[in-house]
Design a protein that fits this description.
About 45% of the residues lie in helices and about 10% in strands. The chain is of the alpha+beta class. The strands form 3 sheets. The chain has a 5-stranded mixed β-sheet, with helices on both faces. A hairpin with a 6-residue loop joins strand 1 and strand 2. The protein has helices spanning about 1-5, 30-40, 60-65, 85-90, 100-110, 115-120, 125-140, 145-150, 155-160, 170-180, 210-225, 230-240, 250-260, 265-280, 280-290, 295-305, 335-340, 375-390; strands spanning about 40-45, 55, 75, 140-145, 310-315, 320, 325, 330-335, 395-400, 420-424. The structure holds protoporphyrin IX containing FE. Protoporphyrin IX containing FE binds near residues 67, 258, 263, 267 and 373.
Length: about 425
């Protein structure tokens, strides 16, 4: 039923991708994307503030064009919808908000650490963590899958990559939630769209919790400077970037914070959405149980289906044309990855959840541009191992209550997922 509702068009005038309250029922966002792809694929979306708005890019091909052309569509004016001034940009720019040489140099510092070879070396650790997490959760019979399985899993993995002591994991988890949940009252100390957030305008996501993350990261950096460690922090403080310019304290703060937040909610929500999809499509769960060799294609379908990052934004550096519209220099151009993931031009029967889907050219990690998710191999490996371990343990699994969503047009998140399971 959800998938039929998702493709029901609405009057164009009712579409509002800037209204966060439309992003809480799990259906309206998909209806808005469907409507735009069919009626106005590059759509001017006004925002509340006077003279503001953005181009909503909703088709796969147009999104790919924007993501692959950083000279015309820059990340340096920031990648979410927030308006930023030059001073904020100087203070807050991380890898995500740099282009060109400096971006390549900073990304290069950790490229190998996130490459397939190094990540495959974590397989045993991931399998062990998965087994412990699942055994504790499934023994409960009825439980919240988000709380017991998906929520803390990614940050426990990151803690290992950062080589921090396990007793610090809970702090990292809390910080990650508070920083990135900045539009949802369940997580944020200060809501991004509240008047109070003005006080924190110079901080990432306008979140006071980011100061705690900075302090923690700096202490790790101090301990590891000059050492022989191979963890991510040691690399950042001991390697010289390819452009020869060492990381400033501020570069380090922003890089460290990005690592703490980038893979946290994204991976968590993918795992939750994947479980929800299997509960809503029991025949697909049965297919996986009968044929575990389908897990790799299932992982790609989980990623497409979940679309945990709704959008990333760019800013036009010059006047250009996109999907028949005249885009002017300085205007915000927003790639709605989630919409591209349901594009009928690219995906056969895009609203069907199919664990055996082939040629799954989804946009969940971006589309071949310089900012393609650095953690994509890690995320794929985590999700694969989790479902390799979960599927054979389940004889039966059912949804046991409502599934509230995160109030955000940036992160497509599930807050709670009550399930009842019977063990195999
Ligand atoms: C960038 C999604 C997991 C680290 C990105 C981008 C997206 C994304 C859409 C921007 C792509 C673009 O602009 O073309 C996701 C999703 C994940 C995930 C959906 C999980 C399912 C992770 C993990 C890590 C990570 C586990 C690391 C711990 C990063 C970093 C960047 C990035 C550092 C910035 C790369 C750059 O600017 O060059 N991610 N991500 N991500 N991601 Fe992920």
């Amino acid at each position: 039923a959800t998938t039929d509702a998702a493709r029901e068009p609405m009057p164009l005038a009712e579409v509002n991708l800037a209204d966060l309250d439309r992003f809480t029922d799990g259906v309206t966002p998909w209806r808005m994307f469907h409507t735009l792809r069919h009626q106005d694929p590059v759509h001017w979306q006004p925002e509340d503030a006077p003279n503001s708005g953005f181009w909503a890019v909703t088709r796969h091909a147009d999104i790919a064009r924007v993501d692959r052309d950083p000279e015309t569509f820059t990340s340096t004016r920031f990648v979410n919808l927030e308006e930023v001034d030059d001073d904020q940009i100087r203070r807050r720019a991380s890898l995500l908000e740099l282009d060109g040489l400096r971006h390549r140099a900073l990304r290069g510092l950790l490229q190998r650490q996130f490459g397939a070879r190094v990540i495959s070396g974590y397989a045993d650790f991931l399998r062990g963590l998965t087994a412990t997490t699942l055994d504790a959760a499934l023994a409960r019979g009825t439980f919240d899958f988000v709380k017991e399985v998906s929520a803390d899993f990614p940050i426990n993995v990151l803690a290992r990559l950062l080589d921090v002591p396990p007793e610090d994991n809970q702090r990292l988890i809390d910080w990650g939630n508070r920083v990135i949940g900045h539009t949802d009252p369940d997580y944020a100390d200060v809501l991004l769209d509240s008047a109070e957030s003005e006080r924190y305008r110079d901080l990432p996501f306008r979140s006071p919790a980011s100061l705690e993350v900075f302090a923690y990261g700096r202490e790790l950096a101090r301990q590891r400077r000059g050492g022989a460690g191979t963890d991510l922090v040691s690399r950042l403080v001991n390697e010289v970037p390819r452009d020869g310019v060492p990381l400033s304290d501020r570069d380090f703060d922003n890089y460290f914070l990005l690592l703490v937040v980038a893979g946290n909610e994204t991976t968590r929500h993918t795992i939750s959405h994947a479980m929800l999809a299997l509960l809503q499509h029991p025949e697909q769960l049965a297919r996986l149980r009968d044929d575990p060799s389908l897990i790799p294609t299932a992982v790609e379908e989980f990623l497409r289906w979940a679309s945990p990052v709704y959008h990333f934004r760019r800013t036009a550096t010059r006047d250009t044309e996109l999907g028949g519209k005249r885009v002017r220099a300085g205007e915000k151009v927003v790639m709605w990855f989630a919409s591209g993931n349901r594009d009928e031009e690219v995906f056969g029967d895009p609203y069907a959840f199919d664990v055996a889907r082939r040629d799954n050219d989804h946009l969940t990690f971006g589309k071949g541009g310089p900012h393609l998710c650095l953690g994509n191999q890690l995320a794929r490996t985590e999700i694969r191992i989790l479902f390799e371990e979960l599927v054979p343990r389940l004889a039966d699994a059912r949804l046991a209550g409502d599934v509230p969503r995160v109030r955000s047009n940036f992160v497509n998140g599930v807050k709670r997922l009550p399930v009842t399971v019977t063990l195999a």
